[in-house]
Structure formats: C-alpha cells, structure tokens
Amino acid sequence: MNIIEKIAKAGVVGAGGAGFPTHIKYDCEAEYLIINGAECEPLLQTDKFLMREFAAEILEAIVMIAENIGAQKIVFATKKKYTKEIACLEKIIAEKNYNNIELFLMDSYYPAGDEQILVYEVTERIVPEGGIPLQVGVVVTNVGTLYNSYRAVKDLPVTDKYVSVLGEVNDPRIIQVPLGTSVKDCIAAAGGSTINDYAVIVGGPMMGTNLVGSEIDQAVITKTDGAIIVVPRNNFVIERNKQSIEHIKNKAKAACIQCSLCTEYCPRYLIGHELEPHRIMRALSYNEDAEVLKEAQICCECGICELYACPMGLSPRLVNVYFKNKIKEKFESSQDQLKAHPMRDYRKIPTARQTARLDLDKYDHQALAETLKVDVKEVKIPLKQHIGAPAVFNLEKGAVVKKGELLAAAKADSLSVNIHASLDAQIVEVNDQYIKLKAKDEVVS
C-alpha cells in the first residue's frame, strides 16, 4: 500500500480549513510544497503546540509528501515571533540533514495563513480567481494535516484531535480528545466557564463557527476543529454573526456610505482578484441582478471587510455569502493577467490590532496549562466532517467496535473520506447525520 492509499485509509483531511480529503490533494505533481505553520487567526495556539511537540513527525511527513509529489522546493512558512517553534524545527532539520527544507518567516498579520496569500508571499505567484494553488504549481498543507499523514503511514487512523480551549475558562489548556467529544465536555476539561451567559467560537474568531444556547449542547469536535474560545454572549463577534440576512441586507441598504474600505483591505483584491465588495454592497441596494454580484463567488470569507474595515458596522462578508448561495452562474474573470496591488504590503492587518478590534485582546497570549488527554464515555461522530460527500455507515446499531475500527467508508467515486471509531464502545444510535458511541460499561441493556 503506497502513501496515498494509507492516507486515504486513515481518513485524513485538511486539519486547518474546510477539510479537503488529503489523499486527493497529495495525489499530484507540483513544483512547490508549502507548509502552513502560520496559524493566522487571532488567539489560536494548536498548530504552535504541534510544531513544538511533534516537529520530528511533521518534518518526516514533509519529506515523504515532497517525494510523492516531486516537489523541487519545500518551504515551511511560519511566523517570526514563533521562536520556540522555530527552534524545535531547526533542531530536527539539522539532526536529520533536511537541508532542502527552507524556513520562510513571516510577520504576524491576518490572513497570513490563507493558502492563496501564502502562495503569493512565498512564490509571488497569484492563484487564479476561483482556482487552487496547484494551478500555479503549488501544494499547500497544514501542520496538523502533516501530523495525521505521518500517523497514517504508521497505519494509525484519525481518531483524536488536539484542541485549544481558552477565553472565559478557569484552566485554559490544550486537550487531546476523541473525535465526536462534545464541546461542553471540552469546556469542562478546561475547568469550566468563568461566566454563566457565554457563547462559544469553534475555530478562529474571524472564520470559526459561533454557537449560543442549545447549539453549544449539540456541538461536537470534528477533524477540522482546532480551538474552542469561550466568550461572553454579547461579544462583538457573536452579535455580528447572529443577525438575520434580512436585517443585514436592510442595514446595508440604509447605511453603506461607499467608502470602499471593504475593498481596499480585501486580501483577494490586494493580490489582483476581481473582487470589490463595496460594488457588491451598492448593487444590493439598486440592482440584485447586476453582473458584479458574481464576484461574491471568489470571496474567501476571511471577515476583514466586516470585522475590521467597515466604519458603519456592516457585513459585506455575509452579503457575499448570501449571493454565493443565490447566484448559480459561475464567475468568469475578465482579466488576462493578475497583478498584486502596489499598496498591498501597507494594508496588511497586524494580528494584535485585529484581536483588539474583536474585543478579544484580554485573551491574547493566554497561558495554556499542561496538555490533558481527556477520557470520555460517549461520542457523537458526524458522518460528514469534511468538504464533499458524507461517509457511508457500514455496521449495525448495537455492534461493538474498537478504537480505530472503520465505522463508515468513504462514498465511492466521491469527494469523501473514511470515518473511524474514536472509542472502544458500542453503537447506540445511528442516523444519516451521525453515529453515537457509548463505552460498553455505560450501555443500559
């Protein structure tokens, strides 16, 4: 079984984004392999932890993947300020003579970890609008994905996740949990919340999932979740993202002053893409059939326009999402050649300033306690933890499974991945959304 087959068998997906199946991403040829160690969202610390604790495993995986794709250049991109992590990487690089791995050190700005921005920073190549890095000879992969790929080669499927739990918790820490662990169990493992009326951000505050009330009770950890941030229910980020689309549209029609700051700070616009959010906002008010609305399809949904740039408190990102879902006709670029904006380097947003704008700076650089492996008695494992088609359940309710056993197989001829048991347990519930497992001694006959 080759490396691609082992990664597919293990159910590895992109650990830092939408969860693209990794065996498909790595099954190619590319000039560059770029490793994303930037972890650009404010407050996140999980990738830093992985670079410190598993530098040898990550670098070994890099060598294997680079050989598989025929990469001529290997670039490990991370932030200059990650001095401990850089030292760990440099130590292993020197010991193993990985002299072909170049460290590319970046300033701390948002969104440095966006793969298209990373490609431009490292190579000065611009990924086409609506395209992928492979179109310019590049594969970009996250450190968490590489760690899981290393384990896959050792015949270890993806069953656990390292998660940063921080914010309004008594004992901020990184925890290791089985996939399907409830978010509430994760918060309990970090000492519980310091406040009663709280909300949860799963992932980063700019692009993560916001949960309130019963949503928190239902949420579980999946293959793509790297952080849980507990914040007051009235936090700026939470309030902004809980608006209805009708309220967002009405507010935009009434208050957009066409200052164009949403466009001037847009990372895609700054690398030359034909995306101008202020024109989309104008069309929202005057002509919802305008050709410009197709540009919404190339929005990366980074949130800079709404959570940093707009002086009126509007939500161009959510307007773009609305038109993405509404307009089916594919955007086609009118540009022959893409060229970065001359002011791009001067419009990078310092992460510290972005954190303050989000009213989250009190949690910045929050010290995390010693890593804790969390044992749970029950998990709810979604059949879809990635972009593409859900896995196909292939066992029966009542079956007893061992940790690492295949629960649901990747759907044939689809963008899909295998799902494995994350506990030694019994299957107690099955539907088209998830599989619930309980430790056998917890099952009531």
From TrEMBL:
Q: Which Gene3D superfamilies match?
A: 3.10.20.600, Alpha-helical ferredoxin, NADH-ubiquinone oxidoreductase 51kDa subunit
Q: Which InterPro entries match?
A: 4Fe4S_Fe-S-bd (IPR017896), 4Fe4S_Fe_S_CS (IPR017900), Helical_ferredxn (IPR009051), Ion_transpt_RnfC/RsxC (IPR010208), Nuo51_FMN-bd (IPR011538), Nuo51_FMN-bd_sf (IPR037225), PduS (IPR017054), RnfC_N (IPR026902)
Question: Its Gene Ontology molecular function terms?
Answer: 4 iron, 4 sulfur cluster binding; electron transfer activity; metal ion binding
Query: What SUPFAM superfamilies does UniProt report for this protein, alphabetically?
Result: alpha-helical ferredoxin, Nqo1 FMN-binding domain-like, Nqo1 middle domain-like
Which Pfam family name is an example for this entry?
Complex1_51K
> Which terms in the GO cellular component ontology are assigned?
membrane
Record keyword Transport present? yes
Q: Does the keyword RNA-binding apply?
A: no
PROSITE patterns cross-referenced by the UniProt entry: 4FE4S_FER_1, 4FE4S_FER_2
Residue ranges of the 4Fe-4S ferredoxin-type domain?
245-276
Could you list this entry's UniProt keywords, alphabetically sorted: 4Fe-4S, Electron transport, Iron, Iron-sulfur, Metal-binding, Repeat, Transport
PANTHER family listed in its UniProt record = ION-TRANSLOCATING OXIDOREDUCTASE COMPLEX SUBUNIT C
Q: What is this protein called?
A: Na+-translocating ferredoxin:NAD+ oxidoreductase RnfC subunit
| Classification lineage | Bacteria, Bacillati, Bacillota, Clostridia, Halanaerobiales
